[in-house]
Amino acid sequence: MSTAPLTGRRAIVTGGSRGIGAEIVRRLTSEGAAVAFTYSASGADAEKLVADVTANGAKVVAIQADAADPAQTANAVDRAVAELGGLDIVVNNAAVAHMAPIGEFPGEQFDRLVAINIGGMFWTTRSAIKHLGEGARVINIGSINADRVPGPGVSVYAMTKGAVSSFTRGLARELGPQGITVNNVQPGPIDTDANPDAGDFAESLKLVTAQGRYGHTTDVASFVAFLAGPESGYITGVNLNVDGGFTV
Ligand code: NDP
């Protein structure tokens, strides 16, 4: 009988209550990892996810923590370490989007995107790093919009995802000698609450992909699980697109 590849590994996933993050929680636990995930508002979704995953016999912990708040983020990491007995995998997934022309872009939305999409990644990683050892993984969820922006109104979101890409490279260089890999998974259009397949922009986004369609949360989660696993140890510091050919 083969052992699940992530058996014995302990992970934290930020923004795990819904969408891509929730699918990552399901996938990592199905491959044997024990997982803590954060959420900010979707308590009912978080509870349901915990119930589903626990029913499958896996260890999962939901932690309410606003990714924009450094203290809450640090507490979430501490609690994850306490509940799981350590930490091997960090998935920085929590992010929000807001679209508006730059001349009308609300200042509070700018602050929110920077605080969650960049700050959340920084604070989570900063708190987690002292717990990570040889073979650990940091996996950031960026966006293909860091590389290609096919329409207006997306500049601030794209900027935050460009920061994810740059942070990934710098951190990979810093943590390489410790045997810790750092990578940036860049999804294209994926069917979630944030970007529904039937949403206002869906048809135009489909046309940008080579495949003419949206992807599924499982497309991203399966790739994250590979990066979290034992066979990805020589991949670090790169942007890895799961985008149906958004940039070709
Ligand atoms: P969703 O909006 O569907 O889900 C976002 C998740 O993040 C939810 O679990 C939400 O929980 C959580 N979250 C949001 N704000 C906070 C916060 N302040 N603190 C903690 N958790 C928070 O997004 P997606 O699943 O679509 O996106 C996931 C990632 O993938 C993001 O990084 C996004 O930028 C990226 N991405 C998505 C694409 C897509 O087409 N869907 C394309 C490219 C990149 P709660 O409701 O509890 O706040």
UniProtKB/TrEMBL annotation:
It comes from the Bacteria. GO terms for molecular function: oxidoreductase activity. InterPro entries: KR_dom (IPR057326), NAD(P)-bd_dom_sf (IPR036291), Sc_DH/Rdtase_CS (IPR020904), SDR_fam (IPR002347). PROSITE patterns: ADH_SHORT. Keywords: Oxidoreductase. Residues 9-204 form the Ketoreductase domain. This is 3-ketoacyl-ACP reductase. It comes from Mycolicibacterium arabiense.
